[in-house]
Amino acid sequence: MLENYLPVLVFIALGLAFGLVPLFIGFVIAPHRPDSEKISPYECGFEPFEAARFKFDVRFYLVAILFIIFDLEVAFLFPWAVVLRDIPVLGIWAMVIFGLLLAIGFIYEWRKGALEWE
Amino acid sequence: MITEQLFTLAWILVKILAILLPLVVVIAYTTFFERKVIGYMQVRIGPNRVGPRGFLQPWADVFKLLLKEIIVPSASNRFLFLLAPILALAPALAAWAVIPFDQQLVLANVNAGLLFLLAMTSLGVYGIVIAGWASNSKYAFLGALRSSAQIISYEIAMGIALIGVLMAAGSLNLTEIVMAQSGNLLSWYWLPLFPLFVVYWIAGVAETNRLPFDLAEGESEIVAGFHVEYAGGAFALFFLAEYANMILISVLTALLFFGGWLSPFQGIPVLEEAFAWVPGIAWLLLKSACFMFMYLWLRATFPRYRYDQVMRLGWKVFIPLTTFWIILVAVAVRLGVGPWF
Hints:
The complex is a heterodimer of chains A (about 120) and B (about 350).
Chain A: H1 6-28, H2 58-82, H3 89-112
Chain B: H1 2-41, H2 57-66, H3 78-94, H4 113-135, H5 138-169, H6 174-180, H7 194-207, H8 219-222, H9 232-257, H10 269-274, H11 280-301, H12 307-335
Helix pairs in contact in B: 1-2, 1-9, 1-11, 2-9, 3-4, 3-9, 4-5, 5-6, 5-7, 5-12, 7-9, 7-12, 9-11
């Protein structure tokens, strides 16, 4: 059973190695003549006004937190969906309750405006 | 014993290269056809100078990109800056390990195929986040933020759409999912799961940061977004990753909703025999090519979305819609409604 996964592992390793090739060629064959203007951070031809590590909108952070909750839901639903034909009624009701809890949370965050970007 | 294992490993490597090398050629020619198709849609000719009718243009692009200087900005975090493109590309390629091209033609026929695909497509976001942060440039940072928030938002809708497919097929194995659709044109999942198919396809376009959802790299807003500081071979890696993901989404849509390698003439008396000689992989590639063309068509047709519109579509339309539809599908599966479930 597990030997089916060996090609997957080899493929991941080869994918990583494949990414090294253009970088290797770029550093070995391609010219390398940096100067202070060329390697300064790009900002439409201006001198950078301030550091690039600035404050950003908290909503990006909020989206990431909401994502974790909903992605977990998807991860829980995956195996449940596969065996949906065979599970007893108790399994259905467990998922209904789980889904309702999430739905209440989703409606709450919607009403609170966590999904507004205007 | 050792030689036997080495032989197995070498055979696996040969099979992987048999997927990888055609994939890279397809990616190269996708960029060419993109420029040609969009050119004709805008009443231009597109590239036509390198080789007959411009057919050698992708190779010229490849050599130009590889032979350009790789610029590493002075303010960047050097190690992460060079690691990011590799992290973006590796999952985009590794996802191909579980794709079945025909009933027997699959590198790794694993039971958790769809779960592996979901994991690999999720990992791509790390390359983008690290690239934007390590560049230490404002445009790159903003682009990475926008891009990652957009990708994770659409991933939820995508995941819920996949749950509908899982319920209908009752398996995570991609080969079994395709086989569960056999019958005829109308037994493919696009019909019973139509809203999920539409959401999956649109979310796939948004996941790959393509127009009209390309505001993470909108040229007129934030220049090129997360890869603004990349040049030469490092930029080529991001480019490869984006196109490998586009082709992956097209193939997946064909596999999950359009019967993969199954012939569209299945179950039709005369036509089925007339087209029996066509190998399954040809149907899969043909269906995928249609979706690749849709990518280009979308790009040539629609203007770019605004950021709040993108987020509203993802959270307030797609998530409720897909949730509603998988509840319907779950009820249908439990009651055994219709010919599909």
